[in-house]
Specification:
single chain; alpha/beta; 2 domains; 5-stranded parallel β-sheet; 4-stranded mixed β-sheet; 38% helix; elongated
Length: 325
């Protein structure tokens, strides 16, 4: 697809010409365009493009998009470019985590992070991720020790939310994308009509990030950046409410997806796996005693993940694609 032709068809002409209104805000976008997936990058960009179309009136914000290639050092350098250009807001961290955020904070430029993970104590930043940084890897490390299985929390699913299993692992721990189904269907129809392509998780993430950006810019007209960002925190996007700074990860924030052909385990490991599946499978939310669920939730009861596959009931064998709010 020729992205310039698509943009020309969808964006207001003012965004595409050098003579755009001087009053228009500028949004800097740090996009993993060349790696790990050009297709996902295009979907992120098209999602942002569609959301930008909802801007009311004239002087729609102007996008400046730069490619980080999922490289934190490049993202840091791009942040410096945006600081020099005095952009009004930056969107990024679909792939990197916290890259450029500190420099932008010092410069007083708000930052919207779309990473699945979130970092504590970040001023002038809205984070759409629901999982504390490195929490997934810690859970996976404990599960590897307890079960003896090859469990990874560092696969491509943390970028594309697609829980795909390779031959090198027995299970993957992946973030779960939550959506407002009614809004999803509405936006998906508009997206399909505009771009002749199916609406994807990546497109939805781009759309949600731009929703946050536009909400902030509307408020920033009469407020200081920190106050406008705080007000924006209360909004609801296509992917649900923007997480508050101290919000704990919901119990369904992650999914642990097992292969159906697991290796042979010793008796203790088999017993541990059986209890894990019964405790965290979709038939036993929170380890509640019901229909054979264990009374004792074990060490996993409060951890933010559910189990799919690995001997769970038929309704739980497939990974969660989208979790409706």
């Amino acid at each position: 697809m020729n992205i310039r032709k698509v943009l020309a068809a969808v964006l207001p002409a003012a965004l595409l010409c050098a003579g755009a209104s001087a009053t228009a805000a500028t949004i800097g976008v740090i996009l993993p365009g060349s790696y790990p997936s050009t297709a996902q990058a295009e979907e992120l960009q098209l999602g942002m493009t569609l959301a930008l179309k909802t801007w009311p009136g004239d002087a729609a914000p102007r996008l400046v998009i730069k490619d980080s290639g999922c490289d934190a050092r490049k993202a840091e350098a791009i942040s410096q470019e945006f600081i020099k250009a005095k952009v009004d807001l930056v969107l990024g961290n679909w792939c990197e985590i916290n890259a450029g955020a500190d420099a932008l904070k010092v410069a007083g430029i708000p930052f919207v992070s779309s990473n699945a993970e979130r970092v504590k104590d970040q001023d002038l930043q809205l984070q759409l991720g629901r999982i504390e940084l490195n929490a997934g890897e810690k859970i996976a490390a404990d599960l590897r020790r307890q079960t003896g299985l090859r469990i990874s929390a560092r696969t491509s699913c943390w970028m594309d939310f697609d829980a795909t299993l390779s031959e090198r692992v027995d299970a993957v721990l992946c973030p779960v994308l939550t959506v407002d189904r009614g809004r999803w269907d509405q936006v998906a129809n508009t997206y399909g009509a505009a771009f002749r392509k199916p609406f994807t998780a990546s497109a939805a993430r781009g759309y949600a990030a731009m929703e946050v950006a536009l909400n902030y810019l509307r408020r920033a007209k009469g407020m200081k950046p920190a106050a406008a960002l705080k007000e924006t925190q209360s909004m609801v996007t296509l992917l649900g409410p923007v997480p508050t700074l101290d919000a704990p990860a919901p119990t369904t924030a992650l999914q642990l997806v097992f292969r159906h052909d697991l290796p042979k385990l010793n008796p203790q490991q088999s017993q541990t796996l059986d209890k894990l599946v019964k405790t965290k499978g979709c038939a036993c939310p929170g380890g509640t005693l019901r229909g054979g669920c264990p009374r004792d939730a074990g060490p996993w009861g409060e951890l933010p993940f559910v189990v799919r596959g690995g001997g769970t009931p038929p309704a739980c064998t497939k990974p969660i694609e989208l979790l409706e709010l």
